[in-house]
């Protein structure tokens, strides 16, 4: 009996001294575990006489219950203390400024913004959007578009060519997005109303040219599509894009292999203190090229020029962005300078209309 009292005193003081839950668990294993002191005493009962077993058994069980109760009480105290310590450590300073969410800190690149604006304006006029690969065949980039074999664009100095394959066919980084329209004509039956925005490439690098730039081309094919339709579409597009109630356009004769007749289009504008305004003034700014799709191109793309006719145009997206948002240097577009993007970029989810980048 005296031994049991000593054991009880020792265990209770171990329990009281346990500083954390793992120390307490060690005391539990040493007493109530399979080979613990109390379990060993209990397994010794079998060797005792029935009388001894009765008194000793009752005493050991009382000890066991007392130890179990002390363990459980101490576990509760330690759990509360651990929670208190965590709460004291993990304080939250509610006076700190709120860190902006990623969607608020990020910016949309002006090129992406302008592409979205173009998509919205032309979608409103019933156009769909087509995309194609940046690496094209010589056939889709030049031959189907009626480029003669000796055209300067086919020269190494003007176009990025890949090494020729075993059959002598050389792929190119597309020099315009026209191959996407070629693919569209080959895949769809008229009427066709499509715009093709995307990256284009030419061996050119100076203040106003980067080897990679962006273009959007448009194509309309139907039985009676004509230059009157083209003029209306371009006027509507330019008014919506530059957010002016009127635009005056001037069509000058020009030459492209893939259109006949071909034209260059100037917008009337005023220039004051380096600022360009449309819909007023007496200056002209060249803005795009266009024309009626050449009958050879229609034929090359599986369309009968006796039945179908159409028009097409091409515009530089980078220049559109520079004009609309007053960015003076084209090269900054592709330098990935976060300060530039913070200044000229657009907030996501922050505009009432995709086609209204200027008016809030
Ligand atoms: C420019 C001129 C232009 C086209 C692109 C085109 C496409 C097909 C057939 C006929 Cl598939 N034409 N595209 C037509 C005229 C002009 O771009 O100065 N771009 C920057």
TrEMBL record:
Occurrences of domain Aminoacyl-transfer RNA synthetases class-II family profile (ranges): 112-348
Cofactor remark: Binds 2 magnesium ions per tetramer.
Catalytic activity entry: tRNA(Phe) + L-phenylalanine + ATP = L-phenylalanyl-tRNA(Phe) + AMP + diphosphate + H(+)
Predominant cellular place of this UniProt entry's protein: cytoplasm
Single GO BP term: phenylalanyl-tRNA aminoacylation
Cofactors required: Mg(2+)
Domain of life assignment: Bacteria
Keywords: Aminoacyl-tRNA synthetase, ATP-binding, Cytoplasm, Ligase, Magnesium, Metal-binding, Nucleotide-binding, Protein biosynthesis
Listed InterPro entries: aa-tRNA-synth_II, aa-tRNA-synth_II/BPL/LPL, Phe-tRNA-synth_IIc_asu, Phe-tRNA_ligase_II_N, Phe_tRNA_ligase_alpha1_bac, Phenylalanyl-tRNA_Synthase, tRNA-bd_arm
GO CC term (a single one): cytoplasm
Subcellular location(s) per record: Cytoplasm
Amino acids binding Mg(2+): 260
EC number of the protein: 6.1.1.20
GO molecular function: ATP binding; magnesium ion binding; phenylalanine-tRNA ligase activity; tRNA binding
Similarity-based family: Belongs to the class-II aminoacyl-tRNA synthetase family. Phe-tRNA synthetase alpha subunit type 1 subfamily.
PANTHER family: PHENYLALANINE--TRNA LIGASE, MITOCHONDRIAL, PHENYLALANYL-TRNA SYNTHETASE
Subunit structure, interactors included: Tetramer of two alpha and two beta subunits.
Protein name (record): Phenylalanine--tRNA ligase alpha subunit
The species this protein was found in: Methylocella silvestris
